[in-house]
Amino acid sequence: MRLFILFISTLAVLATHGCTPVQQVKIITVPGAEPVITEEEKLKIYQSVKIEIDNYIGFGEGHYNKGEYYKALVNYKRAYSLDNTLVEVEKKIELLEKKIVEEATRHFEEGQKQLPDDRIKALASFNSSLRVNPDFSAALIAWSDLMHEPEISTMTADLEAELVNTLDMYTSSLEDIALLNKNADAVMKYDYQNKIALNAKKIAERDRQEIISTSLKEGYNLLEEGDLDKAKLSFQMALALEEYSEEAKEALRSIQHRKDINYLLNLAQTSLKKKDYQKAVEYSGKTLKLDSYNKEAEKILTSALEIGLKPTKSAQLYDVEKKNYISTLYDVQKMLARRKNGKKKKAILAVVSENLKAEVDLLLAAGQNLYDEKQLKKALSVFEYVLELDPANDLSKTFIKKIHNRLETIESLQ
Q: pTM for the complete prediction?
């Protein structure tokens, strides 16, 4: 209820900030009662205002990451004006207000120190102060005075002329975008509000976003065609132009995921051809962990288990690769158990469970033999391994308890 009332009270704020218009609320009049807003309309209002809040916070993050603290502050304040319970946003506002004052003051004081010896450097410092805080009146006065000096007026005019020439030759290529930004920044180093430079930055940003959008579209098309390497290059291009692009990052993660699947699947296929059934199970099992419905991996796993793999003798029980194989069987078993029931699932699960049981039985037998031979620590490691794979294995629990008791007895006698 609190949030709903807050949203109603902030609709005017949304309009003031030029936000997406909120749909008109439908008022239901009941005789003898106050007008009522339906639950559906309440939800629409909530969703609309929530979108605006998220947008402002997102804009604030973007400006902050670029070092544009004043613009970040404005957007955080707009978000906070719509919901003053946003504790994290409130903290950011407080920190930014402090940071802006400190940064603007630092640049201003640097300018004052530079003023007697280098008026151009002083101009840049006063300009930096105003870029951090356009409301800093002392910096504005000092900056304005210097901008009217003949030598400085000539210098800034020359920089502006070079920028105009760049705009005339501009072709929207990546190289031209970089050059346009460079020359616009050169002008804005001394004149933060130069209209030609601000317009040039807008043009460069528009074209940069266009290239990002094109790169993303090309990447998705290539991804759909299965050309992972070229798709990766397209998404990397987008990320190079927008380092905070979650879309590009997610696409690259997806490509890497698919590459990992293809890599493991290829290893599984090769292992099966070489009749290395243990490795075929491992790699196909790892593939299924990444892609639980991969049909080719299911086929390789089933073939390796049915055709050539037999439970090993106890001499190989401590082999690292063997443990990896058994662990893979357990992982696959758990993964299959989470899948919806079906003939395919039952068939694969039956083969996996059968092989797993045979391997565990061998482990338990080997552990008991080691126990009888009084190789207690080795026996303990075997039972602990079984228990790690199967926490409900009662036989392992029993022997672990026996071994601990015997070890404690031996230690007390020593």
A: 0.58
